[in-house]
From TrEMBL:
This is Branched-chain amino acid ABC transporter permease. It holds the Pfam family BPD_transp_2. One of its GO terms (biological process) is amino acid transport. Belongs to the binding-protein-dependent transport system permease family. LivHM subfamily. GO terms for molecular function: transmembrane transporter activity. It is found in: Cell membrane.
């Protein structure tokens, strides 16, 4: 039974990593930029939800707090693109990477000022509830994380592959100038994808906060999410989820069966192996640019 308990716990944690990795992949698919502040977006979404939902703050109904949190995170993503990213349009990828890293530092600083540096938990209706199946005890928080992540991943996969807006986003990523001449509003499309990425990060933050405590350094798990995106194949939405699941499952088993000093490096050792034997990732979507 311990095996299945570790497996379920790993899957739930991996789903959170996968959601953050989805944010990396979405922005990359639409803009070919890498947002290294995606983990901090998740952390900020968790704190915004705590601010709206916890009784010590606004104490709004849980459903209302979720909606407001996603609106705030979507607006934040759009404003970051509108006020910051567009000003460095045409610059090197290095400049954009440095900008997003600096943005992560700013988010952690702001979160520390507003909510403090002590760990905080989200008051939620799933706390303490359990589901028992064949002798296995599942926390309802873990079940909610898994179900929401699967539904969101499927929805985003069909959005990018079947809708006009999703195809327009991929066209803008392939060749922005050609997309512009084809009548695609490239800047508006990129603003939308940053807003959508903010919403996804907000969902990840809410789910993470239902499982455990949050502090301003929580956003550093974005490093693991980036590793998940690389393992799955940068550019693949299902690959991002798979990479997150792989890392999430490895962690509890490594902690249980490996020496304490080595268990922490297990996800990164896997990343190294994948980069050596399959550099494009497990579910890579390699394609030639169209001009």
């Amino acid at each position: 039974m311990d095996f299945f308990q570790l497996l379920v716990s790993g899957i739930a944690n991996g789903c959170v990593y996968g959601l953050i990795a989805l944010g990396f992949v979405m922005i990359y698919k639409a803009t070919e930029a890498v947002n290294f502040a995606q983990g901090d977006f998740m952390m900020l979404g968790a704190f915004v939800m705590i601010g709206f939902g916890n009784s010590g703050y606004w104490g709004l109904p849980f459903g209302v707090a979720i909606v407001l949190t996603l609106v705030v995170m979507g607006a934040l993503g759009y404003l970051i693109d509108r006020l910051l990213l567009r000003r460095v349009a045409g610059e090197s990828q290095t400049a954009i990477i440095i900008l997003t890293i600096a943005l992560g530092f700013v988010m952690r600083f702001i979160a520390g000022i507003i909510w403090g540096h002590s760990p905080q938990s989200l008051e939620n209706p799933l706390a303490g509830q359990e589901l028992r199946l064949a002798g296995i005890t599942l926390g309802m928080e873990d079940v909610a994380v898994i179900l929401v992540t699967v539904a969101l991943t499927v929805g985003l996969f069909f959005f990018f592959g079947r809708t006009k807006l999703g195809l327009a986003m991929q066209a803008a990523s392939q060749n922005q100038l050609a997309a512009y001449y084809m009548g695609i509003p490239v800047k508006r499309v990129q603003g939308f994808i940053w807003a959508l990425s903010g919403v996804v990060a907000g969902i990840a933050g809410i789910l993470f906060a239902t499982k455990g405590s949050v502090d301003p350094t929580t956003g550093l798990i974005g490093i693991k999410a980036f590793a998940a995106a690389v393992i799955g194949g940068f550019g693949s939405l299902p690959g991002a989820l798979l990479g997150g699941l792989v890392i999430g499952i490895i962690e509890p088993f490594a902690s249980r069966y490996m020496p304490a000093g080595y268990s922490q490096i297990a996800p990164y050792a896997l990343l190294l192996i994948v980069l050596v034997f399959r550099p494009s990732g497990l579910f890579s979507q390699l394609r030639n640019k169209k001009v």
